[in-house]
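Sorry, I am new here, but would you mind making up a protein's amino acid sequence and the tokens describing how it folds?
***
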Amino acid sequence: MRTFDPLADAAGADVWGVEYPGHGERLVESPAKTVEDLATHLAGETKRDWFSRTVAIGFGMGAFVALETAQRLGVAPAALIVVDACAPQRRSPDKNAKASASAMGRVFGRTGLTPVAGYRDSPESWEYALDLLLGDLQLLNTYRGPVRSRLACPIAAIRGTDDPAFASGDDATGGWRVWTSGPFVGRVVPGGHLGVLEPGREAEFWARIRRLEAAFLDLQPEVA
């Protein structure tokens, strides 16, 4: 996913991005009709032993896709980090069911969603990006949350202070705690929706990820 190239380049480690069917270089493929179908598709493309050694990072809807994929593989990743995503059981399905392209453009244009903001220089690319967002929003509106068991891996949940999804003040990020039998860490960081992806914040993002990994180690139970 070219949008995430600067972020991957700054990682200092191997980073793999997931391209959804119907997006980017997989545009000719039929898009998934549900989050569950998308996770089933991705699980079929993923090796269990590789996934178990990988720190999975899910941005927005990607957090739910990562959780559902892990459950279908039957193995937890080394850790799951979710960014700007309410816990599945704290979501309000259908909340944005009637959102228009113009409304979505205003929301994402002001909240730091870099993957969309980067298309503004080209009207055609901007329209394409909004179409993708509206399609993904439809998936979110029909997603009712996982019904399987929680993961046996650390989970960290990050959200931006100005993310409109959390405007009510409800700590929906903390709700991710119930989806792990291992350590949990929640963090609130400056910025809007996916503001952590703003250009120039790549090194800051990975430094935060490394601090989260250190926090996980501190929370691990001692072995007698």
